[in-house]
Amino acid sequence: MSGERTTMMEFAELARALGAAGGESDRLGIAVEAAVELIPGCLHAGVTINRDGKCHTLASSGALLHVINDLQNELDEGPCHTPGREDEIVVVDDLTTDPRFARWGARVHADHQLATVVSILVFTARGSYGTLSIYGTGPHAFDADDLATAQALAGHLAVALAAGREIEGMGAALQSRTVIGQAEGILMERLDVDSDQALAYLKRISSHTNTKLVQVAADLVRTRRLPEAPDRSAG
């Protein structure tokens, strides 16, 4: 539904859910799910932190967001990669023609058939900032009501995060989830598998080598070298 049709009751329920969530990772996940549910045309959503000039996916509606953020780092451009970003909202209505992120936009459109992105600032801290981003397929995928809904979601998320621990103090659980998601994104791109298959691949490596899952993922993200699964299969 659009922002105009999104009721106060729905946002009240969202606020309660965010407040009752057990930690930052849960709050981030709730916000991302709400974006996809409440904004028509939103196929993918994610929360990204830019720390020291690099994008890191904190929560996403799917592993594709990890791939898109990795591409921002690779090409050194993108709405979540802008150094010292101060713009509250960045709207790219057509990734194929917008000159601000020409290389990144062309790749996202060609590789993933996405044409519109809206990125909204959620928080800023020393050396970092966080954004809520939504993606749609066609150009001009979101109208004014959709933008209002997205901004309201970002606002609720900002309040919920401020009420919990400090952003820079996020716990090990969130960091583990982030690095595992990044590793899944790499495997999806390299092996042409889905997120479930990528996670199964990591779990097999973890079991076979008696190494914690998060360490297997961290090694993959750091080295970009694929570990060999016991059965040499990702499925």
UniProtKB/TrEMBL annotation:
| PROSITE patterns in the cross-refs | ANTAR
- Boundaries of each ANTAR domain copy? 160-221
> Which controlled-vocabulary keywords does the entry list?
Kinase, Transcription, Transcription regulation, Transferase
Family annotation (SMART domains):
ANTAR
Q: Which domain of life is it from?
A: Bacteria
Pfam (any one): GAF_2
Any idea what this protein is called?
GAF and ANTAR domain-containing protein
